[in-house]
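Late entry, written up from scratch paper. The run itself happened at the end of the previous shift, but nothing got recorded in the book at the time, so transcribing now.
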Amino acid sequence: MTASDPSPETHPDHSRLHTTIWVLIYGGLLAVCLSLFLPREAELLSLGFLSGGGLAVAVGAVLLVIRSRMPGP
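Output as recorded:
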């Protein structure tokens, strides 16, 4: 990488935001996948995992768009 390449490691706040984005996206996808494997008797728990995971993925995607529009470091 050259000095002109924007990378999240060059600014601490960008690095923290970058980490938060991917934790939300991957954690949310994991929760959605786990909700598919819960037994039918745990319908309320499954719905909670599904909605919470979907919300986490959506927040991560919105933060990803916001980060892409931020000025480079």
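The chain has a mean pLDDT of 86.
(Scratch paper discarded after transcription.)
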